[in-house]
Amino acid sequence: MARIGVFVCHCGTNISATVDVKKVAEIAKGFPGVKFTTDYRYMCSEPGQDLIQKMVKEHNLTRIVVAACSPSLHEKTFRTCTQNAGLNPYFFEMANIREQCSWVHDDREEATLKAIDIVKLAAAKVGKNNPLQTTFIPVEKRVLIIGGGISGIQAAIDVAFNGFETVIVEREPSIGGRMAMFDKTFPTLDCAACILTPKMVEVNQSDLIKLYTYSEVEEVSGYVGNFKVKIRRKARLVDENKCNGCGTCWQRCPVRLPSEFDMNLGKRKAIYVPFPQAVPNVPVIDQEHCLYINKKKCGICKKVCPFEAIDYEQKDEVIEEKFGAIIVATGFTMFDHSIYGEYGYGKYKNVTTGLHFERMLNSSGPTGGKIVRPSDGKEAKKVVFIQCVGSRDEARGMPYCSRLCCMYTAKQALLLKEHNPEAEAYVFYIDIRAAGKNYEEFVERVQDEYGATYLRGRVSKIFQRNGRLMVRGCDTLSGTQIEIDADLVVLATALIARPDAIKLAQMLHIPYDQNRLFTEAHPKLAPVETVTTGVFLTGACQSPKDIPDTVATASAASVKACGLLSHEKLPIDPQIARVDVEICSGCLACQEVCPFGAIEKEEIVDRVTQQKRWVAKIAPSLCNGCGACNTACRPGAIDLDGFTEEQIFGQIESLTADKGDER
Amino acid sequence: MKDNRSIKERDLGSKPAREKVKIAAFLCKWCSYAGADLAGGSRKKYPPNVIVIRTPCSARTNPLFVWKSLEKGLDGVLVSGCHPGECHYSEGNYHTRRNFAVFRKLLEYIGIEPERFHMSWVSAAEGDKWAEVVKDVVKVVESAGPNTYFSKKKEDNG
């Protein structure tokens, strides 16, 4: 018979303010199997844990219940404590009387009664816990990084520095991501390319970093330490090993198309590298527009290539590789402002976005660094910037603040003035959010030194009058309505999750929030981890981040990944399903519902009949312990350690024990 | 008026068991349980009638658990998991949805008030929603009153 000890935590006054902890401890003495109960101010503190260990010895306890906070916070702490007390770590249950009791109820009596019930549940369960042994699995010492923007690049460099092999999978033909598109970075006005390209080159030259550009992750299976990943390497139609990036092919290609990298402001060819500093400096052929692929005409690139690198017959290739950890660095995309009628539904050519403007500022960009009106190419002198387009707009856009728009708008206003001191910059804003090192000072400078006009208010309408854009808005500080005839309007559109973020999340079994941004394991204490062990987050795929924050999370994620990889073996959660072959009828309904392919059929010789028959067999390393098979099992042959039928039925009965007596 | 006496003074022992309805909630640990934790973290208030039983996934919640809860005299049961498509185990809650669609019919067939059984999808980010779900469920179960279906049956048979 289990000898249960119940330890009730005050959590300062977090619990004790609404729950009478002494009463809970007193009543818990009467629960079946409970031999000792007490309360303490902070159970998770060192003296608290010492108390548990001491009482285990003193009262010969074999099972522990701690009534405190949520198991997601301290289950691990107390498991270790239980183990240190000389017991199996799974001889422990947590009763959550803080998050799900004291914090959500006001009435002290009601809350105490509920806390008693919660402790009763835990006590009923803990008595039936099985001793579980942690098993270990080997670790594949490689890291997969999905996304080759600044966050993926930084993560790869950091992982390689720690001596582990990494693979970057990038969808575009070159790494570099969004940062490669920027002109200068706030608040120091470093040229983005000057600080990014050395890193890109470092990635390319490192022996430990492998680049799969123009590739996508297609399937992820396995688990921490042993992820199996299928990567589709899209047909470039150019042999990466032969090409040296001389550029003869794209100079001679006759097809001219809008360049995605230049936000369609400039042109590219059908065979192209997205930008001059591309890594790898190997072009791709745009199969949709190539004349040879579509009409069997032209073929110039193949003729002129001195290295015979062009291969029209190349096909997509799917490769499978193994990784120990995965870092997700897929970044963001821009909000589409064409839903906003007041900004012209995206139909005015001279209403652009920050990213368009960024390309115009860039001296190697499509306009050679000139700020022009896209409609006629004439210099733009009067520029209106509108902030919070799609951000902080619960009704039509995103409820959150995109965090960097205030800063990049200020930077763009400054650069506009630097490019043309005669130019005028107007900024419509709701609030200025410049929380960062030297950020506030920067925004002040843009207003004071560069004379950008900041107007607090929204723009109600943009319309055309005599061929010019009229921006009508209000200045709430002076209480006046304003009309500005602008050459160019630049919208600071929200940063949002990529449209296929959900697909990737499902592949990796990581959760995402209502805005499709990936969710970290804990918003404060595990900001780069996910609930799937071995999968880490960095950069703007998690929430909008500026470059310093992105680089910081990239380094953090790589440290976490390297930490995993530095182990020869990793423990796996023993709370998984098991089959009682005596009961199993071999129907394999469980196999149908298992999302992890962890169940296979096995031939055994029946103990009684001495005949061969099939039964279900669970692969412990693949089972994640979801329990879907338990419910699907018709004869009840499968059970889930940690959440056994006996335990849950026991919990239900304990909860209704007093109810039954009553009637 | 708020009663400021300590519990000891009021002596819980002599008080008859709660007349209020008692509801068991089976929550998956990834979404709904975390959502309930978030409700706590954001101090959202809701009625104390719901006692949570934690499961790894809503798919672990065998319809028999719900049956047992009602049979043993609980007044209502709530099963909650991640939103469809957002299951931590990728597809567990689809199984849950199907299992309980059938199970609900069984309850109706047997004659147990449909007000006693509830399902919801609450994500880890939806603390507010959890509080609302609890309020709604308690209200609906209260409208059905105490669950005497099985105790009456016993009396009839005995």
TrEMBL record, chain A:
Keywords: 4Fe-4S, FAD, Flavoprotein, Iron, Iron-sulfur, Metal-binding, Oxidoreductase
Domain of life: Bacteria
Reported cofactor(s): FAD
Domain 4Fe-4S ferredoxin-type: 234-264, 281-315, 575-604, 614-643
GO MF terms held by the record: 4 iron, 4 sulfur cluster binding; metal ion binding; oxidoreductase activity
InterPro entries per record: 4Fe4S_Fe-S-bd, 4Fe4S_Fe_S_CS, FAD/NAD-bd_sf, HdrA-like
Pfam families in the record: FAD_oxidored, Fer4, Fer4_7
PROSITE patterns given in the database record: 4FE4S_FER_1, 4FE4S_FER_2
Similarity section: Belongs to the HdrA family.
Protein name listed in UniProt: CoB--CoM heterodisulfide reductase iron-sulfur subunit A family protein
Automatic annotation (TrEMBL), chain B:
Keyword flag Metal-binding: yes
Transmembrane segments: none
GO molecular function: iron-sulfur cluster binding; metal ion binding; oxidoreductase activity
Provenance organism: Aerophobetes bacterium
InterPro entries, per the entry: MvhD/FlpD
Domain F420-non-reducing hydrogenase iron-sulfur subunit D intervals: 23-143
Keywords: Iron, Iron-sulfur, Metal-binding, Oxidoreductase
Name of the molecule in the record: Hydrogenase iron-sulfur subunit
